[in-house]
Amino acid sequence: MTSSLYPHGSHRTPLPPAAVPADGVPSPQTRRPTAEAPAPAPAGAGRPKQRDAFFDNAKYLAIVFVAMGHSWEPLTDRSRAAEALYMVVYTFHMPAFIVISGYFSRSFDASPHRLKRLITGVAVPYVLFEVAYTLFKRTAGGDPDYPISLLDPWYLTWFLVALFVWRLTTPIWKIVRWPLPLAVLVAALASVSPEVGDDLDLQRVLQFLPFFVLGLCLKPEHFQLVRRREVRILAVPVALCALALAYWAGPRMTSAWFYHRDSAQELGAPWWAGIVMTLALFGASIVLTACFFAWVPGRRMWFTVLGAGTLYGYLLHGFLAKGSRFWGWFDAAWVHTPWGEIVVTVVAASVITVLCTPPVQRLFRFAMEPKMEWAFRKDAAELARRRHKA
């Protein structure tokens, strides 16, 4: 046997030094399992990864608040109560959604697989929906000359731009010593810098950044902390105080501060107000977001399955939210009565619920989660991992 492998005797060519194996690829020294002693299957092998019901519930409820907030906007001019609710919801609904996005971006490492997912799941939907929104505004909005510009996100597409930028910068936030204070500093500087401009909605990207970084810094035990019974009880008076404060502040301040899309100077305030409002709104948003998480159920509910389709609902409901303004749905006098406001709220929650359902996800998956295998080169390491698993 030895002579057949080495026909020229015992003088063998030295082997090259062993390289560190890639993740999932066996090294030359890896002992392969034999037929007599098969390798044990890893725990949980063959089972689909279970989704956490709490986060699916939180995403669904947050997106419902987003839709209700959009439906309340036309009512705020005539109803002080609607304005107070609008301000409270806008304080936490997007921050809560962004915190969850940051929490689930902790594993982003700029590997080829994750970059592909970022392109197909964020960049491509941005291009498609930005074009679709522009065409919708040209037709339904009566603005036939509105240009298609991928540098100027219209309406809801800003979030996809922000998510793309935030995830690309995730490795940076994971290595700096004080990521959250640094992110808050960046947001405060953006709020006093009108030179940032509107390209790619960078004001929103930078001013909402601390919530994404906060999500990166959180651990499972932090969510368990805010879901304790005493926190749930305390959340009720805190929310009521926030609602009373919003009712008082409604006529005295502009709600544009909650959009985080303009600098202080662009809102007609002195530059230092941008720093003050950045810190104040960040603190208020964190408190109300904690109150929101405290009341999110942790068990499976009838709407838990809808948590996987929240981005579908978010982007699709924008056509109805804007269409309702284009088509004058809020011009009717009954809409501005208390009963009319309740109807509008129920309709908004119902529409966003339908748009998050699995049938709608299957219908629009070509735009939201395209495979696009043809667009990428085959990754040798990934192919090796697949062969090893097989």
Automatic annotation (TrEMBL):
Query: Which intervals carry biased composition (Low complexity)?
Result: 28-47
- Transmembrane annotation, as ranges: 84-105, 117-136, 148-166, 231-249, 269-295, 302-322, 342-364
Q: Where is this region: Disordered?
A: 1-48
Q: Which domain of life is it from?
A: Bacteria
Q: What is this protein called?
A: Acyltransferase family protein
Q: Which Pfam families match?
A: Acyl_transf_3
Entry keyword annotation includes Transferase: yes
Tell me which UniProt keywords the record has, alphabetically: Acyltransferase, Membrane, Transferase, Transmembrane, Transmembrane helix
**InterPro entries per record:** Acyl_transf_3_dom, Nod_factor_acetyltransferase
Q: Where is the Acyltransferase domain?
A: 53-356
Q: Name one GO molecular function term.
A: acyltransferase activity, transferring groups other than amino-acyl groups
